[in-house]
Specification:
alpha/beta, single chain, 377 residues, 12 strands
Length: 377
């Protein structure tokens, strides 16, 4: 038990150092200022059965304050009237919106990747911003994105929105999976100034490329089979020598990822096994280490000694730092034990689903056992 105590303390102390470093130094999208010049920007929205979300999010996209802007939305074979809703909103807003009808993905393509590829071919902008249909964007979001890319001379930028969390289960689970690894394991300020592809991340909810960087990386064609195409694109960008900027953007972007517990379960069953390496050995090792860091402090606390309270205090500090960086409420911290436990359960379900080839997303079967490649540094 003492060995586990020490391992937990070491892991959490390292995570706290990274979290505090991010809290103090992470590049924030809202601080980017104004761009020095205004390239043509294409905001590209893949949408499959997103009619309900678009009623909330598309008017905000159409209200973006940027003079050289086109918005392209691709209806990815929806059955809920997504294209019709988008066209109706576009007519009412009088904004530069084009609605495209997508085709079914060819063999070997994941559906979203094929949708993004079609969008990229139709876009005319020198900057491409891929934006999920459930993202709420503030008027200045594109300006700040362009400005941050220019400041860092980055070919690729990804932003991390604030999570809108409905119900206690989402408040418990989503920050543990989506935000806690970022705040505690990735020193965001160092990502654009280091060359190693292992120090990278990308978030498809808001992912921007210069056209030249997108072509150098190979675009979505290069990740056609990947479940976590955004993560792999981030790694490929750095492997190709393209600077990558990662920015929290809680005041400019917000997202409600899932409409309920069932959708959340389906989404994380799709993502967690590939996110933890997509191979049995790496998955088990990662799950064990994260359990020691995120769950063991509560088990150790039951022994009631002073030493066993140290991991709990470190974990609490990490969670508070994350809540401050991403502007999440106090309940996300209080619900951590339930969230961490449920996240582990979902990870095991994801493992089983991928191993058995039974993972589906929005009505489409996904290829089983999709590992994330690790490009050479």
């Amino acid at each position: 038990m003492i060995a586990l105590d020490l391992l937990s303390i070491v892991l959490l102390a390292a995570m706290l150092l990274v979290a505090l470093y991010n809290l103090a130094t992470a590049p924030r999208l809202e601080d980017a200022g104004e761009p020095g010049h205004l390239p043509m920007v294409s905001v590209l929205v893949p949408a499959r059965d997103e009619a309900e979300n678009l009623r909330r999010t598309l008017p905000l996209l159409l209200g973006i304050d940027y003079p050289r802007l086109e918005i392209l939305l691709l209806d990815d074979r929806s059955v809920d009237g997504t294209a019709e809703v988008a066209e109706q909103i576009g007519r009412a807003g009088g904004a530069p919106l084009r609605v495209l009808r997508g085709s079914d993905p060819p063999p070997g393509w994941v559906g979203k990747n094929w949708a993004c590829h079609q969008l990229s071919e139709a876009a005319t902008g020198g900057v491409l911003i891929f934006c999920d249909a459930d993202v709420e964007a503030a008027p200045a979001a594109v300006r700040r994105t362009v400005a941050m890319m220019q400041t860092h001379r980055g070919g690729v930028l990804t932003a991390i929105p604030r999570q809108r969390l409905d119900g206690w289960m989402q408040a418990a689970v989503v920050p543990v999976i989506v935000q806690l690894p970022v705040v505690s394991m990735l020193p965001l300020r160092l990502i654009p100034i280091t060359r190693s592809p292992s120090l990278s991340m990308a978030n498809g909810q808001w992912l921007a490329f210069t056209r030249s960087a997108y072509d150098v990386v190979g675009g979505h064609d290069a990740v056609r089979e990947e479940v976590l195409e955004d993560v792999v694109l981030g790694r490929l960008a750095k492997a190709c020598g393209e600077p990558l900027v990662v920015c929290p953007a809680p005041s400019l972007l917000a997202v409600r990822m899932y409409g309920g517990a069932a959708a959340m379960r389906e989404g994380f069953r799709k993502n967690l096994y590939p996110l933890l390496g997509g191979r049995r050995a790496s998955f088990v090792a990662a799950l064990a280490l994260l359990s020691v860091a995120w769950l063991y402090p509560f088990v150790a606390m039951l022994r009631g000694t002073l030493t066993t309270l140290v991991p709990l205090a470190l974990l609490l500090a990490v969670r508070i730092a994350g809540a401050l960086l991403f502007r999440q409420g106090w309940r996300t911290v209080v619900l951590h034990p339930a969230g961490a436990l449920l996240a582990m359960v979902l990870a095991v379900e994801s493992w089983i689903g991928h191993e058995r080839g039974r993972v589906r997303w929005k009505g489409r079967a996904l290829p089983p056992r999709v590992p994330i490649p690790a490009p050479d540094a």
